[in-house]
Amino acid sequence: MKRISSPVIIVFVAAIVSVAWFTWSAWMSDTDSRHTNASIRQTSEKIRLLEQIAFQTRALESAVRGYVITGDTGFLGREDLSEARMRAPVESLAILTAGDAEATAQVDSLRTAVYERMVFSHYIVRTARESSVMAGAMIQSRVPVKADPLSLLTSRMLNTQYEQLEALTGPGWYDRLPFLLSIGGGIVIVLILTGGLFGIMRNVRKTREADAILRASEEKYRQLIEDAGVTLFTSNRGGYFTYVNSKALDLTGYTPKELENKHFTHLLDFPEQQELGAFYMNQAFDGDRETTKRFPIRRKNGEKRWVEQHVVLLRKNGIFSGYQCIVKDITFEKQKEDELKKAQKEMETLHERFESVLSNTPDIIFIKDTAGRYVLVNKRFQTTFAILPEQILGRTDRDFPDKLSAETSQETDRKVLLKEEMVEVEDMIVINGENRYFHIAKFPLRDPNGRVYGLCGVATDISQRIIREHELIDARRKAETAHGRMEHFMANMSHELRTPLNGILGFTNLLSEQSLIPEQKEYVKDIMDSAQNLLVLVNSLLDFSSIRAGKLHLEKSTFDPTGVIRQTVDQYGIRASEKGLRLECEMEETLKVPLLGDPTRLQQILHHLIDNAIKFTDQGAVKLAVKTAGTQNQNVTLRFSVSDTGIGIPENMKDKVGQVFTQLDEGDLRKYGGIGLGLALTRELIALHNGTIDVLDNPGGGTLIEFSISYPLDVPETIAETLPPVTDGLLLPPLSGKLILLAEDNLLNQKLALRTLSSAGATADLAETGAEAVAMYRQKPYDCILMDIQMPVMDGLEATRIIREAGSPIPIIALTACALKGDRERCLLAGMNDYLSKPFIPKDLFQRILEVIGERYTDAAPFISEPWEEPLQPYRVDLRYLKSVAENDREYLLEVLQSFIDRTAGMLDNLLMSAISGEWDDVSRHASLLRSSLMVVRIHPLSDIVLQIEQDARSRSQLDMILPNIHLAINQYKEAQAVLEDEIRKL
Fold first, then answer.
1. Separation of alpha carbons 705 and 384, rounded Å
2. In the chain, fewer beta carbons within 10 Å around the N or the C end?
3. How many CB atoms within 10 Å of residue 638?
4. Does the reported pTM lie above 0.90?
5. Class of the 553-709 domain?
6. Which tens digit of pLDDT belongs to each residue from 863-889?
């Protein structure tokens, strides 16, 4: 029994020892596992806090750098939050490392470096607010990032924690397995294995929990990257994207999946590919760990954008493994920089030009402040007044009383500064004992806020002009005196000669009635002819003197132009026959209308021209032709031409013809008689009529003289408005010959406008949409376009903008039923010339058309409509306007009324359906079309109800009242429809 008990005891003891050893080993394993897991969690937390410190450090540095470079305070908007995010992980590290002297010392060093970094950042921000240049220099002069104490310390601590984490997650129970297998056997081994499996399961569970914690931490870090507001990505050593955050879509147009595994040159043009490839290759092997560079990229849609990229080299176990990049869109900033550079260059150019102008201008230019002190003077100022800039700058005119006109200058300075407007004066200044005259213009200078901070003066030396003006005044005074004396002498002489001539002619007539022998009768006839010739000369001289003296005035009396012309021509028939000449007269039939003017002076003009033509023609013919040259504003222009086949006028004498006392040749006085006053007097008489005269060569040889005179039609005012149009050139319809393009989609308005334009003599083409109007206006030379505003496909405003952008100056009138506030301004801003709301009075339409095309429509026009404005008590159905336009044309009235009835019901249905579906823009459009028709066929109060519907739909106000108003409008129309149908039956 003892033999057996001893092994049993041994086995039992061994078992006990084994169980005790297993129990102790299991307990120690559990303790070590808990310690290991706690160490893993603590190490992971330290790594997270250190990475957060590193990230926030770069974010704070990037924000400060962005603020210094751009001056945009938006970079500093979350400065306090960034600092709080930097302090919090440092204090958390201090708590985690409590009890470890070495780790605590490192955390204290880290805290000191972080606080120094925040203090330095604050100092840079304050310096940037005072001097951006100094702040920029401080940023440029900073220690490279890889040599930065904070970055080095953070990197060193991270490496330490990574090593600890790797040591903690290394081999565990696998190393102890042989030892455990050697201790037990049998049941002990089974128990040990069971306990080992249980411990393994527990360790696996704890490891999974640790992994979940790590994944959650990684997800938070990833979310932080996604929410950073900038594009972040990483790439491998070859430059292929390994990770891209969602912000890349906004920047590049590519989704993160589209960019992953793509090379970074995929976003670059060829020149940037080479440059950036070399740059980042140099950074990877020889450059700084962190770099910032600006360059353009090409988005997915081809658009070019500028970015700023901050690149940090990634290292694993001290070996370069890739790039981590932060990219920010700086396109707007780049544009601003380019614009600023361009503006600076332009300012430099303008400054150079300004300096050139100041140095080379012949005018005196100066600038003063509000106290009258000189701020700037140009070179001309120095040379004129012999005052150097250093002598006058900062001083006033009173400091130079001998050279500058102080009192006058200060008075004009006060006017400029008080009234804040330009003042122009002429002043005389004594320079070197010589009187110099200057025209001085002074105007205020304003700062960007509109405040006047000084004035600028420009003085032009006008001494020579003043001297010439004085000389001209003296010469003119002398000439006027001599001319007055000559005119006075000629007038007195003419009157004195006329008195004895009347006696001679009178007594000669009495003598011719006596019984005389043939020889005496011949002498009396010679005396009579000589006296008549002398009387003609004296009368011409007297008339010429009267015109020059301003004493000859035209009469205004009714005369028949054909009778005056025939009477004048008949006087020269015998004389032309005596010379063997043909005297021809050609007149238009349209001259047989009474005119208002001076027939005596017209006869005098024709007398001189026909007399000269017969006088200087020895063979051939003399012809007078008269025709109408046009009618405008009840005035008829007559065009006269007197041609002969005489001696003609040499080219070198054409400029002298018509001058006083001028003959073509010195021998002409003896050969043809006269003193060269006839054509000169004719010119003066034609000028008195506001006419024109031309002296030309007759194509058949000889001379052709043409002149035009305008006479008013002698039409009584009481019948002027009822005269029928004359088609022979004297009175035409107001729009005769005009080509008009009408853009209108409403059928009734189309018929009304086309009828009105046609009755006024115009030719009108129709475009039913704005697009058709744009296409048609290029096909014909239209005089004017009548443009409706609301049309399908393209409205009138858009059509007008297209026409104006094409550079067409064609007049455009808005002819629309829109009469709401702001409609007229919208039409004019779109490029229209005028605005006329429907319904229109035909006379007003004609007046607007003629005004925009440069003509004028008179009040005495044949198109005067009867009053159709609102009566005091309006009818339910008012057709007076339509009847006034139709001019009692029964077929036209039937057509318009039937079209109105056929279309209005459908328009009301469209209006109702649009309102039921809540399509308020369509409601406004349908109401406007319906209101256009109601401008032609007026129904009260339906027009007001439709206008209210249009206004409510357009302004989106009182929408709950639109449907009731539409139903009310339908009921109103049904009541009016019976009246319209009855009117149709009557017609």
1. 58
2. N
3. 23
4. no
5. alpha beta
6. 434 444 444 334 478 777 677 666 667
